[in-house]
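Q: I'm writing up a methods section and want to include an example of the input and output format. Could you take the sequence below and give the corresponding predicted structure tokens, formatted cleanly so I can copy it straight into the document?
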Amino acid sequence: LGDILGPATETIARILQTSEGTAAQSLLAAATLAAQSLADVKLHGRRYPICNFFATIASPGERKSAVIAIAFRAIRAHERLLRDNGAEELSMENREAPQPIDAQSKSSILSEDVSFDGLAYSLAVGCPSLGIVSDEGGTFLGGPAMGSDYLLRAI
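A: Here is the clean output for your methods example:
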């Protein structure tokens, strides 16, 4: 995990009394989300977005909610900053110059539950990368994205 995420993982696991795997998974997910809009992977002449999928499976009481809250704290703070300060964000087309965006509708980076249509809209008009993060998988799997009307489009 390197010099930054490694010690952070150990500290979170020790303080929250959870496994290092749970802490590492959440920190890797947060780091990936933070980097998504800043870089792409170039492989064999093609560009691919930095994108990963994470699923932590842990028993109740293993501190998933607390770990997620800490791991994504900086991203939540960035969302608040975007909303509070008029939401200037680096655009994907011109990463050098900040572009103004509508603070209310375009400052969401994290979501706990989203439909396919909502996700597509957010990506089209909002931030260039989004994270669906929930400490309870049933929230997403049992939510509107997995309803019979949306299931085929969502998967």
